[in-house]
């Protein structure tokens, strides 16, 4: 049996844990607080359009209680990985694979990237200050993952799946490895879509297009995607942010196979939806700013690509988050001029 630890059994992590258990994997969850206590007592319940199902999975807040794992899925927010990465060490064996199911540019991005730049095999400080994640996990363990489902914790121990079931996967080296095939097969057996993508980095940037534009503007204004897309001033700013993001992405080899206009129209067609960054403000949770904005700016700075609008919006969002106590500006050594 394949051992899989999901570190961070929140909405997405819990959803993955349930689906992988359904596929026959031996799943362990790392959770804490009332959510952990509810899972221990009653199991983890997954509610979907087809009904509800309860999974009785091992759950702990102490990774040291678990055995060595075949796969570790990190499902905490990207900015929280540095705080938990050392806890992973007891779970690692030589061939343990680590999947970061997070938004934004992942910590392993430039490992075997073939980007044609001098950033090959370097870490990104905005995502991984001082290379702590890179040095502790080792990027050879990494499997890339782009997350599309929308889920929420309805109450402790209960996760509601709202829409979407695709988790695109890919090796940083772009090879079609056995460990990638095995993980994809498990996710598919658990009822998910899990395509194996050779060019996963392209997909990372396409999703990042929306994350770096709609997310911060919704967080700042409180407006949903459709309202932002219908407002001429907001729409123009979103276009400018996407254009800067695209220039940086193309400079490191990414290909954008749809137009900015179509990408904006697609997001704006979702009526009433507020993206995760706005939801975090409303729920008073720390914001995921650096992986989806600061990292683009950092890469652009290193490659002499101007990103003035990204810098302005990034600065305003950080000011708002800092004022609300949802972002500590002193936590990360800011190597950028914003």
CATH architecture name of the largest domain: 3-Layer(aba) Sandwich
Cα(first) to Cα(last) distance is 49 Å
Task: Extract low-pLDDT stretches.
Answer: 332-338
CATH C-level category of the largest domain:
Alpha Beta
How many domains in all?
A: 2
Secondary-structure element string = EHEHEEEEHEHEEEEHHHHHHHHH
Give the amount of beta strand, in percent. 15-25%
Q: Treating each run of at least 4 consecutive H or I residues as one helix, how many helices? A: 13
Shape descriptor? globular
Q: Reading side by side through the largest sheet, how are the strands ordered?
A: 5-2-1-6-7-8-11
| Structural classification | alpha/beta
User: In percent, how helical is the residue content?
Assistant: 25-40%
Count the beta strands. Answer: 11
Which sheet architecture does the biggest sheet show?
Answer: 7 strands, mixed
Radius of gyration: 19 Å
What is the overall pLDDT average? 94
**What's the CATH topology label of the largest domain?**
Rossmann fold
Superfamily (CATH H level) name of the largest domain:
NAD(P)-binding Rossmann-like Domain
Give structural notes:
Mean pLDDT is 94; it is low at 332-338. A hairpin with a 2-residue loop joins strand 3 (44-48) and strand 4. The protein is α/β, with parallel strands linked by helices and 338 residues long. It has helices spanning 11-22, 33-42, 81-84, 132-137, 178-189, 200-211, 214-221, 225-230, 232-251, 260-268, 276-282, 290-302, 308-323, and strands at 3-7, 26-30, 44-48, 51-55, 58-60, 71-74, 97-100, 142-147, 150-155, 158-163, 167-170. The protein is globular and about 50 Å long. The protein has 2 domains: 3-198, Rossmann fold; 203-323, N-(1-d-carboxylethyl)-l-norvaline Dehydrogenase, domain 2 (Orthogonal Bundle), CATH 1.10.1040. A 7-stranded mixed sheet has the order 5-2-1-6-7-8-11. The protein has a 4-stranded mixed sheet with strand order 4-3-10-9. Helix 7 packs parallel to helix 11 (276-282) and helix 9 packs across helix 12. Helix content is 40%, strand content 16%.
